[in-house]
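Appendix B. Raw example, untouched.
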Amino acid sequence: METSLTFNSVRILDLLIAGAGYLEQKGVDFPRVEADLLLSHVLGVSRVDLYLMREEDISGEKLRQYAELLVKRGDREPLAYLLKTREFMGLDFYVDQRVLIPRPETELLVEKILEIGKTRYLGEQVRILDLGTGSGAIAVSLAYYWPEASLTAVDISGKALAVAEENARRHKVKLDLRQGNLFRPVSGEKFTIIASNPPYVSQEEYTFCSPEVKKEPTLALLGGWDGLEFYREIALRAGEYLLPGGFIILEIGQAQGPKVAELFRDKGFETSIYPDYAGLDRIVLAEKK
């Protein structure tokens, strides 16, 4: 990795052009947009304000920070880690290398829970369990948009839970955060809804992942040799933790729908598969009738 980057001009417009050219050489997909975002971040201004300032010069620490961020992004460090933020469900989440970066497709999971749950359990006391909460994106969003529900969020990583705690604080919601693997921290308890976006990348799929994805925690990505390891464990034990009339809802990889649904049907659940906006299988819902 390069350790420094120099510029021929310190005018903002020239810095944006130079930054975009550098990122393009490094294989970044949207170099101009990302150069804009990085310099906006350094200066603490919006992209609109950045262009209003385009004839101004910057120097000193701000210039050094911009160069440093460009080098890191050129080394394919994810943009969200550099900006320390990712938008999810209309909320800004703090993210860093301790957690998986929230994906837009995971919003479908939250939306489906709100769509079904707020209608089915109207006026009832609802307990929701988020397995493998990571940044807390799912749990915080549910607590924010469904304040009447009680949220318990579990993760094996203490570092991830610290990020989830920060996001709960940021959005002024209450989460019961617990450290441990899957159901272990909630032994003997029961929930109305069990939600999870578990690690589901197979060993083979991981070899084809982008450099950015490979900078994210493997603990939050890899789901065993076939990507189904965590679904097997959840299917095996979820029935013990589900209240009558409750449901389990999971994000899945685009080719995993039939196999994940079968795992739950084998344990006596009825299942439904829902697609994402691209028409790819993305959610499995399981419940006992």
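End of appendix B.
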